[in-house]
Design brief:
Oligomer: homodimer
Order of helices and strands of chain A: HHHHHHHHHH
Largest interface: A-B, 51 and 51 residues
Structural class of chain A: mainly alpha
Helix content of chain A: 55-70%
Shape of chain A: globular
Low-confidence stretches of chain A: none
Mean pLDDT of chain A: 95
Distance between the termini of chain A: 46 Å
DNA sequence: TTATTTATGATAGTAATGCTATCATTTTAA
DNA sequence: TTAAAATGATAGCATTACTATCATAAATAA
């Protein structure tokens, strides 16, 4: 038995649904590879087209510009992660255990699920860490938000916030703590690997230490309340 | 009496020292205005030159490219902030009070110090919030780091880490907590104003609530240890 | 003061980026 | 089997991201 997970994406993110054709899937697949290789700044539709063996115009039929493509990929990731979380915390009745599991999922390098899709989750995780914030750190964040581009991120944040409240109903900042955990899971990883003196993990570079830090941070806050 | 604070910048950040001439100072002044107005992506040296009333080539004599200029501005900000912190926490002997003061300084919109310089600190603070991470979220972060471009940020982080340790000598993650406070002071502000459902401050949009959140986060962690 | 370096302004030019448009050909769906 | 839709090939254009040249103005040193 093989079930394929399908994530329904916001239609305003693309001109033509990239999941509806081979070329579209290639765009997703190769853009993940190319962005993770060159970084988002140096990434262009021309290079992507050469990579795939199609033309620039071909890419533009699917995505308006590279910003939309980045937003698409990040939205896909957040939606995928929310599913991972709901799957892996299913039937857990202790909210604290649940929250620990969430933190672990957020801060652990994902392995590519070879079968699932044309998207390499492992490379995408690297993109999220290094480029993810660029999806919303723009002047258009307001319009993009109106079009619900960040809904998967907000949904994930809401899910985490709900678990936090389940742990500690009196806690005053569930949503801010949720966004803090999510962002820091990635930033501490980026810092650990690139600016290690901003972290306490420079020597071992172990994800497990980031997880320990986040657990410490979160549970000290929640137990106090 | 009027003392002017002077920040000595890393010479590898510029081709010609922008503080050494009127044109240079204009570049700094107008780039802060223009970046905060248009965002870093839409900001170009051409537009900046028009703004100032000079030519594109003129700007290139000072800065290699706009990335270096952004790194310059962020480095300036971190150095300036470190001074503010050392000034405002001077002679405070209670480390917890000191840390509270630091959090407040990090999360409070700065007012432009009209006199100090050609840099509008208030606008620069907005740039740091919305564009600051882009200074290091690049493929060149390693090389930039080798050239010490992020030293002011790392120094600030070290200062905050030291205060954290003074509060609680057993605490295991002083540097990671420091970078978390610094990043979150800005991200929660950005979220509050642009993606409010990621925070608990969407209704009032008060900086004081961000400060309260960060204090809660930090001191629960430190008191526990 | 003059001579000389140094900074600026004006102008040009070039390769790459970020698109849009057209049209012929192939693929797919009715 | 025919019409519709997707792709490939090519062209073009405005903007971006630079680099180069040369004349002039301003600062400085002899």
């Amino acid at each position: 038995m093989k079930l394929e997970l399908h994530i329904k994406m916001n239609e305003a993110l693309f001109l033509r649904n990239p999941e509806s054709s081979e070329l579209g899937k290639n765009i997703l697949k190769h853009s993940v590879q190319l962005i993770s290789k060159t970084g988002f700044e140096a990434f262009t539709f021309k290079k992507l087209a050469e990579d795939i063996g199609t033309t620039e115009a071909g890419i533009y039929r699917y995505f308006e510009n590279k910003h939309k493509l980045l937003v698409y990929l990040t939205a896909w990731y957040w939606a995928w992660l929310e599913f991972q979380i709901s799957f892996h915390t299913n039937n857990m009745n202790n909210p604290a255990e649940k929250l620990k599991r969430v933190i672990k999922l957020l801060a652990t390098t994902v392995e590519d699920d070879e079968n699932t899709s044309y998207i390499n989750e492992s490379l995408l995780y690297q993109i999220i860490i290094a480029e993810g914030s660029k999806a919303y750190l723009t002047k258009q964040v307001g319009e993009d938000n109106k079009q619900q581009f960040f809904k998967p991120y907000k949904d994930l944040c809401a899910v985490v916030g709900t678990i936090i409240l389940a742990c500690c109903p009196n806690y005053k900042y569930p949503k801010s703590l949720a966004s803090t955990i999510i962002e820091m899971a990635h930033f501490q990883n980026f810092f650990m690997n690139n600016l290690p003196s901003l972290t306490d993990f420079g020597n071992n570079k172990e994800e497990s230490e980031i997880i320990a830090f986040l657990n410490d941070l979160v549970f000290n806050s929640l137990e106090k309340n």
